[in-house]
Write a sequence for this structure.
């Protein structure tokens, strides 16, 4: 299958859900308006659901009979796998994250733009739609990114997985809590999915390093140490500073919503504070590599 054929097929599958998705949003800090479920939703929990919905931190029942399926084929169920930590799909940091037997292709959709232009109700309806979606019981053992990608590349049928409350949490995340990474750093992609590459620059943009150092000292130093080397992250491959410099696309989500499955909870939630922290952690002397 050529890359162009894949793009068309995958777009058809995904657009059947999300682009059935006039904006209602409150990025200016005003109280959210819209359906009651959206107004009362928890966007922070939505961010955790986006990461790994069946984690205990989301309140998910750890006696769910489908846990073995979710854990055994996790990348076929996690939202972040197909849409990226940056929500930019295969035009962002995941431009080189090709599919294999254990993970599907990355979506070509830009969720940041979709969430910005669609109403909460439209997003809810799209997420709850079962049209063109993959059943929990679908056989993924035969998935192959070239010869047999269709079922595995479909979104899971979240209407049978999530409650309405959880879907509204995801909508609230998409509309209000998700960080537009383009305010945190610049990036340039080269080539096309799945063999492209990305280069980051200007990390922290207009943040203030002194403010970031103060944030780090008050919220991070107790666990990670003064220079970020006390607890290594991401499989012990990175210090705090080197992880953010290498993966700024991912760091923002972990900092804001926590690292599920560990003791790290939400540390910094505002866009302004994230800018400051990002700016500070670019200092390789203060926050060195391993």
């Amino acid at each position: 299958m050529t890359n162009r054929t894949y793009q068309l097929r995958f777009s058809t599958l995904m657009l059947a859900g999300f682009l059935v998705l006039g904006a209602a949003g409150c990025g200016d800090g005003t109280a959210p308006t819209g359906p009651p479920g959206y107004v009362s939703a928890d966007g922070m929990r939505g961010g955790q659901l986006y990461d790994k919905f069946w984690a205990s931190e989301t309140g998910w029942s750890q006696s769910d009979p489908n846990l073995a399926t979710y854990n055994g084929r996790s990348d076929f169920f996690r939202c972040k796998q197909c849409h990226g930590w940056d929500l930019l799909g295969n035009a962002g940091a995941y431009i080189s994250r090709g599919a294999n037997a254990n993970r599907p292709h990355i979506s070509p959709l830009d969720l940041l733009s979709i969430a910005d232009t669609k109403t909460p109700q439209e997003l809810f309806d799209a997420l709850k739609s079962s049209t063109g979606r993959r059943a929990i019981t679908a056989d993924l053992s035969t998935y192959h990114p070239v010869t047999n990608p269709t079922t595995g590349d479909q979104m899971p049928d979240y209407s049978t997985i999530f409650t309405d409350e959880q879907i509204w949490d995801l909508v609230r995340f998409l509309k209000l809590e998700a960080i537009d990474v383009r305010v945190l750093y610049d990036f340039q992609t080269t080539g096309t999915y799945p063999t492209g590459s990305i280069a980051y620059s200007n990390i922290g943009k207009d943040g203030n390093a002194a403010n970031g150092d103060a944030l780090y000292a008050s919220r991070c130093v107790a666990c990670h140490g003064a220079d970020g080397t006390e607890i290594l992250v991401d499989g012990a491959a990175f210090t705090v500073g080197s992880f953010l410099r290498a993966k700024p696309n991912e760091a923002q989500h972990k900092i804001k919503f926590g690292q599920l499955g560990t003791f790290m909870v939400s540390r910094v939630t505002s866009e302004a504070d994230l800018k400051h922290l990002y700016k500070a952690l670019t200092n390789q002397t203060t926050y060195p590599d391993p």
